[in-house]
Amino acid sequence: MNIFVVNCGSSSIKYQLFKWPSESPICSGLVERIGLEESIITHKVFVNDQEQVIKRVLELPDHDAGMKEVGMLLTEPGIGVIQNPEEIEVVGHRIVHGGESFVETCKVTPDVKEEIKRLAILAPLHNPGHYVGINVAEHIFSKATHVVVFDTAFHSTMPEKAFRYAIPENFYKDYGVRVYGFHGTSHKYVSEEAIAHLNKPDAKLITIHLGNGCSMAAVDGGKCIDTSMGLGPLDGLIMGTRSGNIDPSVIFYLVNQLGYDIAQVDTLLNKRSGMLGLTGFSDMRDILKAIDAGDKNAKLAYDMYAYRIKKYIGSYAAAMNGLDAIIFTAGVGENDPDLREMVCCDMEFLGITFNAEENKIRAKGLRELNLPDSRVKVLVVPTNEELEIAKQCFELIQN
Ligand SMILES: Nc1ncnc2c1ncn2[C@@H]1O[C@H](COP(=O)(O)OP(=O)(O)O)[C@@H](O)[C@H]1O
Ligand SMILES: CC(=O)OP(=O)(O)O
Ligand SMILES: [Mg+2]
């Protein structure tokens, strides 16, 4: 069975094609800068542990054009991995916000699509792209079963004391205002990998997903009990362009004293804050270069980014009454040793003794970065949201 997984972001499309049940990846790719002057497609084809990389710069005004290009790459003579789009039996879509109505992986229906579209008010950087992506993919892969997998699903086990806000109950009961949490597919995948590695099903884990969006989860015995993002993917950690947690008084001040309207506040906190707002760069690689060049703002921002993570580690260890491992994952978590060191240093009181030497070595796959006598393990676990989505699609189709 061919399972095609799609993750449509605001200006990008990530995709991966798997052969199932062998779980082998056939090709993957990234379409970037959709709607900008020069869009870039990086397409990788995997054959016997080798990868062939095809990179193209072209004009892609929207997701429609981007997805059509991907469809053509899959079948292009010479590099194509299938003869025609009808060979794709299942398409799995990553959906950031499923609200209260959709927590479980399910097949796409008109109602599901409408709810995803409506929830764009809560996930403005993500859900609009998902909605367009599903429609375009349904057109191209018209014979396939389309399935949606929600970022929010893994967090649905949180107890009410963790997911409620301290505002009058009717906002929750009537309008669904509560903590949902995101990146659930990643937190689920890496926590399961860690549990298998530790051989400890009841492990108390803290998973730290640091990509463009960043979030943490407290996972006790395989179940999420708390997470750092909230009603939308804006709360919690400092991110590429998002502020993370901020006193709501700041919003009143912006509106009442500085004359901002709510749309401007939204843009400020979602698109112009976080590392971008502090340094001028949203990409951690640019920030590291700026620090090397002596940029004090970049150094401060980096300190703030790490400090926020440390605070959540403390609070989640307290919430679980213990800690067996912390897990770094996603672009920054997997690739930035300096950041990991800043987070893990001076944490001996909590049982973390960090192996700074091992941390500096570049390596692939799951690894341990703690010293042998450390009570708490420090793990890097590469995430694979696409594989997890494909797995869930297969399970749904089987049943
Ligand atoms: N070698 C590296 N060192 C530091 N940061 C890195 C490195 N490689 C990637 N990153 C960072 O990872 C982030 C993107 O992570 P990723 O998980 O791909 O995000 P997303 O899936 O949200 O687009 C970017 O901030 C990027 O700078
Ligand atoms: C939910 C979220 O922030 O996702 P991403 O990291 O892909 O932007
Ligand atoms: Mg990601």
Automatic annotation (TrEMBL):
EC number, UniProt record: 2.7.2.1
Protein's pathway: Metabolic intermediate biosynthesis; acetyl-CoA biosynthesis; acetyl-CoA from acetate: step 1/2
Co-factor: note: Mg(2+). Can also accept Mn(2+).
Record Pfam families: Acetate_kinase
Compartment(s) of residence: Cytoplasm
Enzyme category, top tier: transferase
Predominant location: cytoplasm
Residues at the catalytic site: D151
Reactions listed under catalytic activity: acetate + ATP = acetyl phosphate + ADP
GO biological process, any: acetyl-CoA biosynthetic process
Site for Transition state stabilizer, residues: H183, R242
Residues that, per the record, bind substrate: R94
Domain of life: Bacteria
Binding site for ATP: K14, H209, L210, G211, N212, G213, D283, M284, R285, G331, V332, G333, E334, N335
UniProt KW keywords: ATP-binding, Cytoplasm, Kinase, Magnesium, Metal-binding, Nucleotide-binding, Transferase
Binding site for Mg(2+): N7, E385
GO cellular component: cytoplasm
One of the record's GO molecular function terms: magnesium ion binding
Necessary cofactors: Mg(2+); Mn(2+)
InterPro entries: Ac/propionate_kinase (IPR004372), Aliphatic_acid_kin_short-chain (IPR000890), Aliphatic_acid_kinase_CS (IPR023865), ATPase_NBD (IPR043129)
Subunit architecture: Homodimer.
Classification via HAMAP family: Acetate_kinase (MF_00020)
Protein role: Catalyzes the formation of acetyl phosphate from acetate and ATP. Can also catalyze the reverse reaction.
Protein family membership: Belongs to the acetokinase family.
Name of the protein described by the UniProt record: Acetate kinase
Species whose genome carries this gene: Arcticibacter pallidicorallinus
Lineage: Bacteria, Pseudomonadati, Bacteroidota, Sphingobacteriia, Sphingobacteriales
Gene that this sequence comes from: ackA
